[in-house]
Specification:
heterodimer, A: 156 residues, alpha+beta, six-stranded antiparallel sheet, two-stranded antiparallel sheet, 19% helix, globular, B: 139 residues, four-stranded antiparallel sheet, disordered N terminus
Chain lengths: 156, 139
């Protein structure tokens, strides 16, 4: 099923417990990759089902495993115009090798989904404990500098 | 004869011995016991699929380096840091165990993360099952 902005808008305001069928929903955890993986059906790597022992559809919970499987990764300001939707990452620039698509597993890293002409970003806000949407400019303040370099990835 | 000599020399050398058994100090384990057992497991390799490649540096090879990476992140004096332990009775490979968790947590604004380890200690003698060590964390 193709991703549409309507389907993303329907998730706005939802807590991760409303999205994850495995009950992996502690507010102590960072659910950014978890949210993206449930939306896009990424079941590889470390998953919520593995951690929680549930029986629902599994979803990858780690950012760098998603980046590694992207078809292509690049700096945000080099985002190819034809890409209508894809993944957006934010972390310190030195944590990412765009050629190998390897991101170091530092704790300060985040992922969302961008879509449409204005590149609206949908992601899980761990402080607000819900799915939110932001402009790329707003998203760039997710972490303070120097941990706020943005990257795009074409979805696996 | 040569093999026998090598075996004797090897037994005398720490590097040739198998990994020492790690035990929790009390049953059920206290928070302090969980932390002590995690520290005592510091030389365990990051071999589980939940651990391999999930240190804060790609060169991390042991539980010690893995945990040290997250503990080092707590050095920034901006608050929101905590160590969380938990002990839950369970079973593993048919044995009664205590499932022990040690999590390093930080939460300030959007900078929210929680990474750590889980291992199982046998309820009968407190021995940590070497293959039970998993790395927990998301994001």
């Amino acid at each position: 099923m193709p991703l549409t902005e309507t389907s993303l808008k329907a998730l706005l305001g939802k807590h991760i417990r409303d999205i994850c069928p495995n009950g992996y929903s502690s507010d102590s955890d960072n659910h950014c990759a978890h949210f993206v993986s449930h939306v896009l059906g990424y079941q590889f790597g470390a998953t919520c089902r593995m951690m929680q022992g549930g029986t629902g559809t599994a979803a990858c919970i780690r950012v760098q495993e998603v980046m590694l499987r992207c078809l292509q990764v690049g700096k945000w300001d080099e985002l190819p115009t034809p890409l209508f939707w894809g993944l957006v990452f934010i972390t310190r620039a030195s944590n990412v090798n765009t050629k190998t698509k390897v991101m170091v597993n530092v704790p300060r890293k985040h992922i969302g989904i961008f879509i449409g002409g204005p590149r609206t970003i949908y992601h899980y806000s761990n402080s607000r404990r819900q799915v939110v949407s932001q402009t790329p400019d707003e998203f760039s303040n997710h972490y303070a500098a120097p941990d706020n370099a943005m990257f795009w990835g074409s979805a696996p | 004869m040569r093999l026998a000599l090598l075996a004797i020399l090897c037994l005398a050398a720490p590097a040739c011995r198998g990994p020492a058994t790690v035990k929790v100090a009390h049953l059920p384990p206290t928070s302090k016991d969980v932390i002590e057992a995690a520290l005592a497991s510091s030389q365990a390799p990051l071999s589980d699929s939940t651990c391999n490649g999930f240190g804060t540096e790609t060169t991390d090879k042991t539980i010690g380096r893995y945990l040290a990476g997250y503990l080092a992140e707590l050095a920034a004096p901006d608050g929101g840091n905590s160590l969380i332990t938990s002990v839950t009775p369970g079973t593993e490979a048919g044995q009664a165990v205590y499932v022990c968790r040690l999590m390093v947590r930080h939460a300030k604004g959007e900078d929210v993360w929680s990474w750590g380890v889980q291992f199982s200690a046998r309820q009968d003698d407190g021995s940590v099952l070497p293959n039970s060590i998993k790395c927990l964390g998301a994001g």
